[in-house]
Amino acid sequence: MPVPGFLVRGSNPGRQDGVSYPSNLPDESYADVEGSYASNEIAINWSAALVALASSLDALMAK
């Protein structure tokens, strides 16, 4: 089980993991289940922008 709070990728029309998705439409092919690696990918490159934004806002608000 992943650590809560990470930013995940989101919809992925490729569905490479064999999970049943609610739709075949690219923007609706998301399943929030543990085995859905295609739509729940957690990687540093997905979370890095969120961390940079949060850090920047924190630094600006501290002034």
Supply the key terms.
63 residues, mainly alpha, single chain, carbohydrate metabolism, Glycoside hydrolase family 9, hydrolase activity, hydrolyzing O-glycosyl compounds, polysaccharide degradation, Glyco_hydro_9, 1 helix, elongated
* Beginning-to-end CA distance, first to last residue: 38 Å
Biggest pleated-sheet summary: none
Provide the number of structural domains: 1
Number of strands: 0
Oligomeric nature of the chains: single chain
What's the helix-strand series? H
* Form type: elongated
Proportion of strand residues: under 5%
The total count of helices amounts to 1
Show unreliable segments.
none
Helix content: 25-40%
Taking all residues together, what is the mean pLDDT?
81
**What is the alpha-carbon Rg in Å?**
15 Å
Structural class: mainly alpha
Describe this structure in words.
With 63 residues, the chain is mainly alpha-helical. It has one domain. It contains one helix and no strands. The longest helix has 19 residues, at 44-62. It is elongated and about 50 Å long. The termini are far apart.
Could you give a quick summary of the protein structure above?
The chain is mainly alpha-helical and 63 residues long. Helices cover 30% and strands 0% of the residues.
Give the SSE layout.
Layout: H1 44-62
